[in-house]
Write a structure and sequence with these properties.
Chain lengths: 346, 489
């Protein structure tokens, strides 16, 4: 007997000598008491499982378990996607869809009814599908249009909105939602406690920690330089074709959202000024203007004098992200121009 | 089809129900084979043809080896092995070869390279190809030892083809092992009864396996993601080391979790597969590590590569060379990239150095071979050193690009000051804890107490509570679904 094997089965059957059974022989194992104990053990495990599940759900219903605010970027994506798909859209909502560039924007700067469906590591494709598949129609949908469109819609994030059974289960049993994952709840509670101790507001961005140290600034410059180096190569023919295909898929979704009654505006958060001037970026913008002509779609163009600083060449630092959010708010408050010509069908 | 997907659960329930119907008893084995083909089709239907080709080659050649006279036996075996390796080499290493060809022969051969690069990597090919080779060699060895027929080869060709089909394609182990030995699996093939199912093994293997995969590995991957260029450049050395530690836990949980699921699924159908992991992070030396990690691969390499090369019977220098060669090839088995070869060479060099030190000392420590001996401080120091070595090697799995791996090491030196980022460190610590506990419970001191504990009702309740809590964690705290890491091999 191998003393070092974790004894899962209660026996250490020698693999090379399996039990021999004649065809047709109905074997009744000799160790019936052992079998009864095995079933009792499984029964105890299942009983403890159901009890734990019931206690946890009860704790959530009674308000003793606060939802987690954010953990990893995927947790964050899933929490926001689930929260959006489990609640019908309100008519005064402003929804932003895009990638981490959009997720980086503070929605409070855009409006009290603003919802950020920017998906870190994702693109507007996911957000657009979420908006389409969720009951109700928001008032305004701001769509990030840039090369991130080549990232396809994340089916995992859309699972709750597209799977009716799972959606109903999440509506009835909130413990199944990502925001109530026990480890995320515990870590989020710990973070909140630490922030309260440090005297910081709970919703203050953790990235907004004041001026950078020389080492951090040196790293930031290195990351920007690496980003710019990647942007130096022109857009290849295959990349351009992939972007065209992705843009057309996004356009179909944009048109459907527009036909549903929402006002749609297109934007692209600015990166480092030097990056915006790179030939590759100019090629991308030109390509996307062809797929989303200004005569048919409302574009919110970043003013040329908006010089934003970034962490890494792409993501705006908190102060400039707030400034850009205020700019978006001002733009969507203006009367709309050049909206899609399709009629609402919902 | 992923084991942690709804379509698979439905597939399993349907097959399991039909399998144990009394009316289906006579066709259990063909039904399992067909179900395995359906399972494989979920990945890529066209690649089923390749699987069928592999089964055909191995069934025919092994049958001929078993039937033929001596000279012809070797011919059939060599042909079968060559065919297996040719398929593996073409599909798995075609891209690597094309890159070499393009660099060597220039642009004129770019179209050949482009075709090779566009071939899909058949899922599971590394595993079922090695099984085919082991089948042929085992039959040859039994015949060479004087046996009139290999004990596990059926005399009737049709039955042998059917058994070989199940041996190679049995769906619990088809995609990512364990790599089975024919002499262990063939004798098990036969009629199975519902009343014979070892439900304890099924339940505990499945719960532990899914827990390791969906709760531990899938959550850890969301944090170890930051061991990616250029993100790790922003993190302190302490954070990066914590993330690398987490990756070590993740790769174990992912692979061991898969293997346990395979064992549990196989047990549900009445088949016993060998353990593939034996608490590898308790190893006190590299040689011990390779007796505990991916056991089916390491024993395959030992039996079919290391021993035929001479093992340790041809002198010390030859032993070291054999270790280097075998481990480098073992590394390449993992993927068609030089980083995997370097990883294998890294382990080979470690094993050779260990062997050199032992040879110099002159006395092989008997205590180390006794896996049940109680540990002292020196054992924990050795465990730490072995774990650090192995974890360092995993960096090449996470960052196969050498430049990025170098940049990671450089970042450790550049960002040496500062503590760990608790937003990353704490979750990694929390999700690594189950793996640490899983190993700690199998230290010799705990093993020695197991018999006494088993008689205690409180221990049984605690054990069952642990399984209940794992089920709860599966329901409430699974990470975002992902493929098993070893599917890519």
């Amino acid at each position: 007997m191998n003393l070092f094997t974790f004894n899962f089965s209660g026996s250490n059957a020698d693999v090379s000598q399996p039990p021999s059974v004649s065809p047709g022989q109905d074997v009744r194992p000799a160790d019936a008491p052992g079998r009864r104990e095995a079933w009792r053990a499984i029964g105890r495990a299942l009983g403890i499982f159901f009890l734990t599940a019931a206690l946890y759900q009860t704790a959530i219903w009674s308000g003793r378990v606060p939802p987690s605010r954010s953990g990893t970027q995927w947790d964050d994506n899933l929490i926001r996607a689930q929260a959006y798909s489990l609640t019908p859209a309100r008519p005064n909502e402003i929804v932003l869809v895009g990638s981490s560039l959009t997720a980086n924007l503070p929605v409070q700067g855009i409006g009290p009814a603003a919802i950020n469906l920017g998906m870190a590591g994702g693109s507007a494709q996911t957000g657009l599908e979420l908006v389409e598949s969720t009951p109700g129609t928001p008032q305004i949908v701001l769509v990030e249009i840039n090369e991130t469109l080549t990232r396809p819609a994340d089916k995992h994030l859309l699972w709750t909105s597209e799977n009716a059974a799972w959606r109903q289960a999440c509506l009835r049993f909130s413990a199944l939602r990502a925001e109530f994952r026990p480890v995320s709840v515990a870590l989020s509670a710990l973070r909140s406690w630490k922030q309260r101790r440090a005297g910081r507001a709970a919703d203050q961005s953790e990235g907004d920690t004041g001026p950078l140290t020389p080492a951090q600034e040196k790293l930031r410059q290195r990351l920007i330089a690496q980003n710019l180096a990647r942007e130096a190569a022109p857009l290849s023919a295959s990349d351009a074709q992939a972007l065209r295909v992705a843009a057309r898929q996004a356009r179909i979704r944009v048109d459907q959202v527009g036909r549903g009654g929402a006002r749609v505006a297109l934007f692209s958060p600015p990166g480092e000024t030097a990056k915006e001037r790179m030939p590759r970026q100019q090629q991308i913008r030109a390509l996307l203007r062809v797929e989303f002509p200004p005569s048919r779609y409302r574009w919110i163009l970043t003013p040329p004098n908006f010089h934003g600083a970034t962490h890494d060449g792409a993501h705006l630092i908190p102060a400039d992200a707030r400034r850009y959010a205020a700019f978006l708010r001002a733009q969507i408050s203006e009367p709309s121009r050049g909206e899609p010509q399709t009629k609402p069908t919902k | 089809m992923l084991f942690n997907s709804v379509p698979f659960v439905i597939f399993f329930l349907v097959v399991f129900t039909l399998y144990y119907l009394p009316a289906a008893r006579r066709i259990q084995v063909p039904m399992l084979v067909c179900a395995s083909f359906v399972f494989y089709c979920g990945a890529a239907p066209l690649l089923l043809l390749l699987l069928l080709l592999s089964i055909t080659i191995n069934a025919v050649t092994s049958f001929q080896v078993n039937k033929a006279e001596r000279a012809a036996q070797i011919g059939w075996a060599a042909g079968g092995v060559a065919a297996n390796l040719a398929i593996l080499g073409f599909f798995k290493y075609g891209a690597l070869l094309s890159r070499l060809l393009t660099q060597t022969l220039g642009a004129a051969h770019v179209s050949v390279g482009a075709s090779l690069l566009s071939l899909p990597l058949p899922v599971g090919i590394s595993f079922y190809t090695f099984e085919g080779v082991s089948l042929l060699v085992d039959v040859l060895r039994q015949r060479a030892s004087g046996a009139a027929s290999a004990t596990f080869v059926d005399r009737q060709a049709g039955r042998h083809v059917l058994k070989t089909s199940l041996f190679i394609a049995f769906f619990p182990h088809l995609i990512a092992g364990p790599i089975l030995k024919a002499r262990q699996f063939y004798p098990q093939i036969g009629v199975k009864f519902f009343g014979d199912i070892d439900w304890t093994r099924v339940f505990r293997c499945l719960v532990t396996g899914y827990f390791l995969k969906m709760v531990v590995a899938d959550n850890l991957k969301d944090y170890t993601f930051w061991i990616a260029f250029p993100y790790f450049q922003k993190e302190t050395a302490a954070t990066n080391l914590a993330l690398l530690f987490g990756y070590s836990m993740q790769i174990f949980a992912d692979f061991a979790g898969y293997s346990l699921i395979a064992l549990g699924l196989a047990a549900a159908f009445g088949y016993t597969l060998p353990d593939n992991f034996l608490f590898p992070y308790l190893s006190r030396s590299l040689s011990e590590f390779w007796r505990r990690w991916h056991i089916s691969l390491s024993t395959w390499l030992r039996d079919y590569l290391y021993f035929p090369l001479g093992g340790n019977r041809k002198g010390r220098l030859r032993t070291y060379v054999n270790l280097l060669v075998v481990m480098t090839l073992g590394g390449l088995w993992h993927g068609a990239a030089w980083s995997y070869a370097v990883w294998g060479l890294f382990h080979g060099a470690g094993l050779a150095a260990e062997r050199l030190v032992r040879d110099r000392i002159g006395v092989r420590s008997a205590v180390e071979d006794d896996l049940s001996a109680r540990w002292g401080l020196r054992d924990f120091v050795k465990l730490t050193a072995t774990f650090a070595f192995v974890t360092g090697g995993w960096l090449l799995f996470k960052l196969p690009d050498f430049d990025q791996a170098r940049a990671f090491v450089a970042a450790l030196a550049q960002n040496a000051r500062g503590g760990p980022d608790l937003r990353l460190f704490l979750p990694v610590a929390v999700f690594s804890l189950p793996v640490i506990v899983y190993h700690a419970m199998n230290l010799p001191s705990c093993q020695a107490q197991r018999a006494a504990w088993a008689a205690c009702p409180r221990y049984r309740w605690c054990r069952d509570a642990a399984f209940g809590l794992m089920l709860a964690a599966l329901l409430f705290n699974s990470g975002t679904s992902s493929e098993f890491i070893y599917f890519q091999f």
